[in-house]
From TrEMBL:
Cellular component terms per the entry's GO annotation: cell-cell junction; plasma membrane
Name of the protein in question: MARVEL domain-containing protein
MARVEL domain sequence ranges: 12-144, 151-302
Native source organism of the sequence: Muntiacus muntjak
Family, per entry: Belongs to the MAL family.
Principal subcellular localization: membrane
Keyword presence, Iron-sulfur: no
Cell compartments where the protein resides: Membrane
Keyword entries, A-Z: Membrane, Repeat, Transmembrane, Transmembrane helix
Pfam families tied to this protein: MARVEL
Keyword Repeat found: yes
PROSITE patterns in the cross-refs: MARVEL
Membrane topology designation: Multi-pass membrane protein
Sequence intervals crossing the membrane: 12-36, 48-71, 83-106, 118-137, 157-174, 186-206, 221-244, 277-298
Length: 312
């Protein structure tokens, strides 16, 4: 990835700040404080959704402060890559919060003011997601990235963002250690999620000219190998997770009704069986993303493309 720089004029940067950063902060802060009620009972997933909103608030504030006190051209790295990457993750974070919050919390609330506040928070999270997506498009135009390589705006860059984000969502669910404790096969699944996440991050960091030249193999072959390894690991994790959680022969529970926690809904949040199913679905989704990634790099190797990924 080229490290050459470009920067928009100050007017363009001011427009990005005033028209996008402020609405982002307003929406996320509104969502956070709408559900910040001491009288509400929280589940583990709901607590992590609150944390995700805090992450977006803090991240956006840091970017605003940096842009106000240090113009992007003063940074020792490509500012547009950092801001676009953050905006992509923030958009996915707000979208996932808007999906999981109603599923894990709102549907258990009585029809009163608290429910209305929670629904309003979900709407604000959806709006924030849209504004973050608009930021990506706006930065693309302001920095004229059509003429400048930007990893996130390539097919492998987008896939890596999705792979790491899905892994983070999986980590949220497996933070419930009862899902895998004292079962070596399931502990292997957790190790797979961690290993593949690290490999994806390494692949993203290696996409720089100064690092590519140090690789013993060509850049597409390097990515092809990492992706193939991640696919094999995810396949084993998916098979083992399904067998040990949903096959009676291995002590699993194939029916949701067999989990007492799912029948007795006296507390908010997802029951254990639902969390197991969510991890299985997310693992399958990530496996499909890795397969698409493998297809891209296999094509790059077959046509003999150089180190730079191309836009798709």
């Amino acid at each position: 990835m080229s490290t050459g720089r470009t920067s928009p004029d100050k007017c363009g940067l001011y427009i990005v700040f005033s028209c996008l950063r402020v609405p982002q902060l307003v929406c996320i802060i509104s969502a956070f404080f709408l559900v910040l009620d001491k009288g509400m009972r929280w589940g583990d997933i709901s607590n992590r959704i609150m944390f995700s909103w805090c992450f977006c608030i803090i991240g956006t504030l840091i970017i605003v402060i940096l842009e106000l006190y240090m113009f992007p051209t003063d940074f020792p790295f490509c500012w547009y890559n950092f801001s676009i990457t953050y905006a992509c993750y923030a958009a996915l974070t707000c979208l996932s919060a808007a999906i999981f919050y109603p599923i894990t919390y709102i549907k258990f609330l009585p029809y009163d003011a608290r429910r209305n506040q929670a629904i309003a928070a979900t709407v604000f999270s959806c709006i924030a997601c849209v504004v973050y997506v608009m930021e990506v498009a706006c930065i693309w135009e302001c920095y004229k990235l059509k003429e400048i390589p930007c990893y996130v705006h390539t097919m492998p860059g987008l896939l890596k963002v999705l792979e790491t984000f899905v892994a983070c969502v999986i980590f949220v669910f497996i933070s419930n250690t009862s899902l895998y404790t004292d079962q070596p096969a399931l502990e292997w699944c957790v190790a797979v999620y961690s290993i593949c996440f690290i490999l994806a991050v390494v692949a993203m960091l290696m996409d720089r000219d100064e690092w590519e030249s140090r690789l013993p193999v060509s850049f597409p072959i390097f990515h092809l190998g990492l992706t193939l390894l991640s696919i094999l690991l995810h396949f084993t994790a998916l098979v083992l997770w399904l067998l040990y959680h949903f096959d009676e022969k291995y002590g699993g529970q194939p029916q949701r009704s067999s989990d007492v926690n799912c029948i007795d809904r006296t507390t908010n949040g997802m029951c254990t069986w639902d969390q197991r199913l969510a991890v299985a679905i997310l693992t399958a989704i990530n496996l499909l993303i890795y397969m698409a990634d493998l297809g891209y790099w296999a094509h790059q190797v077959s046509v003999g493309t150089g180190g730079q990924p191309t836009d798709s």
